Amino acid sequence: MMRIYPTIALIVISLCLTSCLDKRPRSFFAEDGIIVGDAKKVGKEDIFIPISFKTQIVHSAQIFHDVQWAEKNGVIYITAVFNEPPFSKK
Fold first, then answer.
1. CA-to-CA distance for 43 and 5, rounded, in angstroms?
2. Structural domain harbouring 69
3. Considering the domain boundaries, does residue 35 fall inside one?
4. Phi, psi (degrees; rounded to nearest 5) at 4
5. Residue 37 neighbours by CB under 8 Å, 6+ apart
6. R_g (Cα) of the chain, nearest Å
7. Is residue 28 part of a domain?
């Protein structure tokens, strides 16, 4: 009888982690737009560009994990990564 409690706990934890890996798009990110500040030179070749935006977190499982960026033809693309557990491997 005592073995059923760890099994139930394992099932609940598995379901919670599975919901964290949901890749569906969310419409709560930067509804008011992204504010880009003035670029500042840092070091010899690096620049710092301050960026701010507002988000509306819908429920507690939506965790802001990382910001990734890429530059292509002078355009900077910014991607916010949500719901990726810190222990997952890319």
1. 57
2. 24-82
3. yes
4. -70, -30
5. 49, 50, 51, 52
6. 19
7. yes
Q: Among all chains, which residue has been given the structure tokens 């949500």?
A: 82
- Total domain count, the chain: 1
Is residue 90, in this structure, part of any structural domain at all? no
pTM over the 0.70 mark: no
> Residue 67's pLDDT is what?
75
Q: What is the DSSP string of 11-76?
A: HHHHHHHHHHT-----S-EEEEEEEE---EEETTTEEE--EEEEE---STT--EEEEEEEEETTEE
pLDDT at 49 over 70: yes
Q: Who's near 58: CB < 8 A, 6+ residues apart?
A: 26, 28
- What is the C-alpha separation between 54 and 30, in angstroms, rounded? 5
Task: Specify the 3-state DSSP secondary structure of 79.
Answer: strand
In a domain, 15, yes or no: no
